[in-house]
Design brief:
heterodimer; A: mainly alpha; 15 helices; globular; B: alpha+beta; Arc Repressor Mutant, subunit A; 3-stranded antiparallel beta sheet; 48% helix; 23% strand
Chain lengths: 367, 98
């Protein structure tokens, strides 16, 4: 029979391995989010250079926003199809149905998450891009983990350790270093519509930050792979049943012809398919990371997209980023390591609820 | 329609004072007519997620060797937070405190 001391040492080692594995998977999913989010910028930017989007003049902001709504809807449908494929392979399609039908108590949170991350954040981001500039939009989006972490903290007491907060701050600062200098060339104080851009920037940070916290409310009791599928189902419905029909009925925008032109134009659809493949699995990784390392950490590591986006854009356009990119890169990587250096045991329990941190042998009750 | 799997795990745990993971997993595999190792792993991950979110807590653990391989098992219990969350999400009826 094994010595009790050795037995308890072996148990302690096995526990540490178990928690470390979960921590590693959580950070790995979050890193995949960042990589795929970075890649996503390439096909989604290329889409604007294809018919029918290339034909819309840059100064027709409202038409561009309407076109964005069409593009986002078609994109959401293709994301849904990629997620269907994912859940078919994982054998979770039945669970998707079982979760969707519990709308009043569970899937309504995914509906709200889709409103936050879809119409609010994406529309806000495009407003920031259109009325101030793309750099401003990128910088404001970088602050979404702060919003997510604060909401998760206040709403369901997610633990944000000092080390996690420092890591998060370093990553955000790194992102600002990457994009910040570009702001000086972009800000124009004579622009009367700039306030719309500021509102849009705030909408995108609040929208994406809130999405994680709201979705986690439902993910407490449901599967993340299924959850993301529910979220995109609702996004399709919001755009397809409410927003686009409203735009078509109450405005003169050519919504119908934009839809037909998009789906009948091979190159536009190719870029949409590539973008949605990235987006589907980026979001899947995003939601999976929340349930293992929490909303605050998942979103902060997801912020590394700032680095990957520039790397992939540089790889495809052969335009090297400015020197300060390296400083931002070092900072974001450093911030990630600070976060990853947290003890795995402290991440084994993400909430300050009635649970002790980690297991406590001896509290056993009879079955 | 059957409950979604995470919901089922929570409901089963709410019916007992506590359960070992393999007991919960066996119940779930039987309920959904599944049997393979992949399904078992998926359910173990679901239990890890529920524990990380604080809905269930690990109250005991043991290391057992099966076919020459050491495997870690956990005994789980529904937490007060988990019970509240189950009531919020309609998995448990809301009832007055005793």
């Amino acid at each position: 029979m094994a010595n009790p001391v050795i037995k308890s040492q072996l148990l302690a080692q096995a526990l540490h391995r178990h928690y470390s594995r979960n921590q590693r998977w959580g950070f790995m999913w979050a890193l995949w989010t960042a990589i795929l989010w970075g890649v996503w910028y390439v096909p989604s930017t290329a889409l604007w250079f294809e018919h029918p989007y290339v034909d819309i003049p840059a100064d027709q902001q409202t038409l561009r926003l309407a076109a964005t709504a069409v593009m986002t809807w078609v994109h959401a449908i293709t994301v849904f199809l990629f997620l269907l494929l994912w859940n078919l392979v994982l054998g979770k399609v039945k669970d998707y149905g079982r979760t969707m039908v519990r709308f009043r108590k569970i899937s309504k949170w995914y509906a709200l998450a889709s409103l936050c991350g879809g119409p609010m954040a994406i529309f806000g981001s495009y407003m920031a891009m259109g009325f101030i500039g793309p750099v401003f939009a990128a910088v404001t989006s970088l602050f979404y983990p702060v919003i997510g972490a604060v909401i998760a903290r206040l709403w369901y007491k997610e633990k944000i350790s000092q080390r996690a907060a420092i890591g998060m701050a370093i990553i955000i600062f790194g992102g600002v270093v990457i994009y910040g200098p570009g702001l000086f060339g972009e800000m124009d104080i004579t622009n009367n519509h700039a306030w719309l851009g500021y509102v849009g920037g705030i909408m995108s940070a609040i929208g994406w930050g809130t999405e994680g916290a709201v979705a986690s409310r439902a993910m407490d009791v449901s599967d993340p792979d299924v959850g993301i599928h529910c979220r995109f189902t609702f996004e399709i419905l919001f755009w397809g049943v409410l927003i686009l029909p409203a735009l078509s009925l109450f405005t003169d925008f050519p919504i119908g012809s934009l839809i037909i032109d998009t789906i009948t134009h091979g190159k536009a659809m190719l870029w949409i398919l590539l973008a949605s493949a990235c987006h589907a699995y980026c979001y899947t990784s995003f939601y999976k990371s929340f349930s293992l390392i929490g909303v605050g950490r998942g979103e902060a590591i997801g912020n590394l997209y700032a680095v990957f986006a520039l790397i992939f854009i540089a790889a495809f356009t052969l335009q090297l980023p400015a020197w300060y990119f390296v400083v931002g890169l070092v900072l974001t990587v450093l911030g990630s390591f600070v976060m990853f250096s947290e003890p795995a045991e402290s991440i084994a329990n993400l909430r300050e609820v009635d649970n002790p941190a980690g297991p406590t042998p001896g509290q056993m009750e009879g079955v | 329609m059957k409950l979604h799997q995470k919901g089922y795990l929570l409901v089963e745990l709410s019916k007992a004072a506590n359960l070992w993971d393999y007991q919960l997993i066996n119940k779930a595999l039987f309920e959904y007519g599944e049997s393979d190792a992949y399904r078992e792993k998926t359910l173990r991950i679901a239990l890890d997620e529920l524990a990380a979110a604080g809905l269930i807590k690990r109250i005991e653990e043991k290391l057992e060797t099966k076919w020459g391989k050491a495997k870690l098992y956990f005994r789980y219990q529904l937490s007060d937070f988990g019970r509240t969350r189950m009531q919020d999400t309609g998995l448990l009826p809301t009832k007055n405190k005793e």
